[in-house]
């Protein structure tokens, strides 16, 4: 359990348990949670019972497993409607998907990470990490760099300090210096690329979705595979991508930016 959760008392501990169940992406048994938890057995059991009684988790006595509860699902849906760009951007994302036939991602910053809030698969789908609802690194993804580039100081410095700079592939930028050079290029061009930096064989072009004040509300990307397409193909899609990002920006002009 991280220090932030432990410092937030019972609520932090309960959220830590929710995170661990959610990360499994499948029903999970008590013994598995206990083996990965810093909580004593009695504490973990009490937290699970409370979360179940409040509808945040569900429990199946048949196989003695826990999974995310319907109350949490309802809350997540409301948050998606009120704090996510996805409902506003949906018609534009749909149109872009039909136009280019490639995988489309819509993302927002979650702290210093990327939260994928919507996705459209390509005509010929390619297996990749990113899915709506998943969180990924911002320093080595197109959408992440597109948003980081337009963060004002000191938010940018704070976000960079939280990056792991883990080398996922031989193309990953693994130093703050290299990332800042890349972000300067993105600010000048208004476009970002993922050059197989997060996953080998996966490339993308991304554009920021900016507020009237120039603050990054999100980012939009077109993603493909080096097995079938090239960077030249992505560069040719830049006009339609940036136009779509601008249309989403205008549609979201009166959207209250989540604090």
Structural class from helices and strands? alpha+beta
Largest beta-sheet details: 6 strands, antiparallel
The low-confidence parts are 1-7
Based on CA atoms alone, the radius of gyration comes out at 20 Å
* Average pLDDT reading: 88
Please write the CATH class name of the largest domain. Answer: Alpha Beta
How would you describe the shape? globular
N to C succession of SSEs: HHEHHEEHHEEEHHHEEEHH
**What fraction strand?**
15-25%
Helix content: 40-55%
**Major β-sheet strand ordering:** 6-5-4-9-8-7
Number of helices in the DSSP assignment: 11
User: Could you name the CATH topology of the largest domain?
Assistant: Beta-Lactamase
Count every beta strand, where a strand is a DSSP E run of 2 or more residues: 9
User: Which architecture of the largest domain per CATH?
Assistant: 2-Layer Sandwich
By CATH's scheme, which homologous superfamily of the largest domain applies?
Answer: GAF domain
Total domain count: 2
Distance between the termini: 25 Å
Structure in words:
- The chain has helices spanning 3-7, 9-24, 30-36, 41-53, 70-83, 86-100, 142-148, 155-161, 176-189, 231-236, 238-251, and strands at 28-29, 57-60, 65-68, 103-110, 113-120, 135-136, 192-195, 202-210, 216-225.
- It has 259 residues and is α+β, with helices and mostly antiparallel strands.
- The protein folds into 2 domains: 3-74, Winged helix-like DNA-binding domain superfamily/Winged helix DNA-binding domain (Arc Repressor Mutant, subunit A, Orthogonal Bundle), CATH 1.10.10; 84-251, Beta-Lactamase, CATH 3.30.450.
- It has a 6-stranded antiparallel sheet with strand order 6-5-4-9-8-7, with helices on both faces.
- The two termini are 25 Å apart.
